[in-house]
Amino acid sequence: MAYVIEDSNGADETTTPSEPLTSQKVPFSYSGHLSTQREVDVISFDVQSGVQYRLSVESRRLGYPIDTELKVIDSKTRETIASNDDQSRNNYDSVVS
Fold first, then answer.
1. Which of 27, 50, 62, 66 is the most exposed place for a label (fewest CB within 10 A)?
2. What's the whole-number average pLDDT of the chain?
3. If you write DSSP's letter for every residue of 1-60 in order, what string do you get?
């Protein structure tokens, strides 16, 4: 199982879920609402060895002025598997694959 941690402007990498997570079935879409600065959304999903996954945040593309950071963390080792702050110089939506 992996956690996807999406935050607005640099939350601590050691952030853990505040309540037990229900694992999402892949593929899935998540829609959240950020109500405070530095708010963190944590989504859990099961992964299979040898399968490549693509995760993306689409806030700027949809017209929301949010600069996100996306982290994928192994739920057992708590190691960061992948992370991205910005897709490119002028694209603040995050993507990992």
1. 50
2. 76
3. -EEEEEEES---TT---SSPPPPBPSS--------STT-EEEEEE---TT----EE--ST
Q: Per mean pLDDT, which range of 3-12, 22-31, 71-80 is the poorest?
A: 3-12
> Is residue 93 a contact partner of residue 61, using CB atoms and an 8 Å limit?
yes
Task: Give residue 15's pLDDT.
Answer: 47
- With a CB cutoff of 8 Å and minimum separation 6, the contacts of 97 are 52, 53, 54, 55, 82
**Residue 5 bridge partners (DSSP):** 42, 71
User: Are the C-beta atoms of 42 and 2 separated by less than 8 Å?
Assistant: no
What is the chain's Cα-based Rg?
13
Which residues face 80 on adjacent strands?
Answer: 73
